[in-house]
Amino acid sequence: MNLYKYASPTSFYPLAGKMIPWFAIPAAILFLVGLYVGFFVAPTDAQQGDAYRIIFIHVPAAWMGMLLYVLLAIYAGIGWAFNARLSSMMASSIAPTGALFTFISLVTGALWGKPTWGTYWVWDARMTSTLILLFLYIGFISLQASIDDTRRADRAGAVIALVGVINVPIIYYSVQWWNTLHQGATLRLLEKPTIVPKMLAAMLIMLAACWLYSIAVVLLRLRCTIVEREQNAARFAEAT
Amino acid sequence: MDWSMGGYGFYVWGSYLCTFVVIGLEVFSLVKRKRACAQQSKAEPQERLRGPESSYVAQAR
């Protein structure tokens, strides 16, 4: 089987359509399971009471915001370097979902901050760098929307995506590099988790649900982008 | 389960409500966009859509 053929929008379009239900349905099931474990199985926290249950959506949303930006930068970079149209379209399709998760992480963080810190917002390093991430997403989307020529829009978007990716390690390490009000990382890749297994299970299930949801909506948006670009190209060809 | 979340109900339920409203809006806008694409491609005369990629439009119908 020649996998390279799926680098062409023509070949990938029907494959994306077939893949969407395989991600969307498990995403919906995992959201329900994650909420059940988070609200009915995970115990109340000894220090924060039930306010901590915001963690089950706040942490997965924050991770998705960062990871989707890295993916966006990789696809935009490949699209720019190799003139791969599908990669550029994929980057454009990832951006709104990444912005959405970053927005959710900021709002849920503010709602968690009020009962635990006594304030909705402070300009500490973690929160400020996450806000910058949201602005980078908005900048990427706005820049692409403002340029009529899609290839030029893709290249301009790739520049902002690749420059902005430096913000992701800054967000991740901000709680170590600076003295912040925000707590340290809940999970570290090479260290044993410090939270109760039931809480961890709920968080990981919600993270899996967010991943599957993201893949499904990005594929759906990608299909729309492919069709719209073809229609625009046909109109442009007719007009010139 | 304590539905009042120990007095933190506004913050906890507010977080989840906001999340699902935003996700719902994204899904709704995407479904609307998909339908608009399909309708637009139906309205376009077939002969305008030349080139090797016109198969997307045919599939979107």
Outline the low-pLDDT stretches of chain B: 47-52
Proportion of beta-strand residues of chain A: under 5%
Report the order of strands and helices of chain B. Answer: HH
- Basic shape of chain A: globular
- Tell me about the largest β-sheet of chain A: none
> How many angstroms separate the termini of chain B?
47 Å
Per DSSP E runs of 2 or more residues, the count of β-strands of chain A stands at 0
**Segments of chain A where pLDDT lies below 50 for 5+ residues?**
none
Provide mean pLDDT of chain A, rounded.
91
Radius of gyration of chain B (CA) equals 21 Å
Oligomer classification:
heterodimer
**Helix-residue proportion of chain A:** over 70%
Query: What does the largest sheet of chain B look like?
Result: none
Chart the SSEs and their pairings.
The complex is a heterodimer of chains A (240) and B (61).
Chain A: H1 9-41, H2 55-82, H3 85-117, H4 125-146, H5 150-164, H6 167-177, H7 197-239
Helix pairs in contact in A: 1-7, 2-3, 2-4, 2-5, 2-7, 3-4, 3-5, 3-7, 4-5, 4-6
Chain B: H1 9-43, H2 55-60
Structure commentary:
The complex is a heterodimer of chains A (240) and B (61). Chain A has 240 residues and is an all-alpha fold. Chain A is built from seven helices and no strands. Chain A has helices spanning 9-41, 55-82, 85-117, 125-146, 150-164, 167-177, 197-239. Chain A is globular. The model of chain A has no long low-confidence stretch (mean pLDDT 91). Chain B is mainly alpha-helical. In chain B, 67% of the residues lie in helices and 0% in strands. Chain B has helices spanning 9-43, 55-60. Chain B is rod-shaped and about 60 Å long. Classes of the chains: A mainly alpha (240), B mainly alpha (61). The A-B interface holds A 9-10, 13-14, 17, 35, 39-40, 44, 49-51, 53-54, 57-58, 61, 96-97, 100, 103-104, 107-108, 111-112, 114-115, 213, 217, 220-221, 223-224, 226-228, 230-231, 233-235, 237-238 and B 1-2, 5-8, 11-12, 14-16, 18-19, 22-23, 26-27, 30, 33-34, 37, 40-41, 44, 48-57, 59-60.
